[in-house]
């Protein structure tokens, strides 16, 4: 998907993102903290991916694995 197809009237210079696009979601303080900890683990290669959906936080540890919902920053089991 190209940004120009989502925002057709936006100037091209704004649409030239180099690496990533981020969408901010309103999370409670504790959920924002938990997602931040999961993102750190992902950067260190301990998690494959992490995301939030409907204010719920999910992680994946392997491509074949199913997403797991997490409830706290205690991610040592992954």
Summarize the structure.
This protein is an alpha+beta fold and 78 residues long. Helices cover 29% and strands 17% of the residues. Strands 1-2-3 form a three-stranded antiparallel β-sheet, covered by helices on one side.
Plain-language structure description:
This protein has 78 residues and is α+β, with helices and mostly antiparallel strands. It has a 3-stranded antiparallel β-sheet, with helices on one face. It has a domain of 54 residues. The chain contains 3 helices and 3 strands; from the N terminus they run H-H-H-E-E-E. The termini are far apart. The mean pLDDT is 77.
| Terminal CA distance | 32 Å
Strand content: 15-25%
The percentage helix is 25-40%
For the sheet with most strands, the description reads: 3 strands, antiparallel
Mean pLDDT comes to 77
Return the structural class: alpha+beta
Major beta sheet, strand line-up: 1-2-3
How many beta-strand segments?
3
Order of helices and strands: HHHEEE
Radius of gyration, in Å, reads: 15 Å
Oligomer: single chain
- What is the general shape? globular
Unreliable parts = none
DSSP helix count? 3
């Amino acid at each position: 998907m190209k940004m120009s197809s989502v925002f057709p009237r936006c100037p091209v210079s704004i649409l030239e993102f180099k690496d990533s696009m981020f969408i901010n979601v309103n999370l409670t303080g504790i959920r924002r903290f938990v997602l931040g900890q999961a993102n750190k683990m992902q950067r260190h290669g301990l998690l494959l991916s992490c995301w939030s959906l409907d204010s719920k936080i999910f992680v994946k540890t392997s491509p074949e694995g199913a997403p797991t919902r997490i409830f706290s920053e205690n991610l040592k089991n992954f």
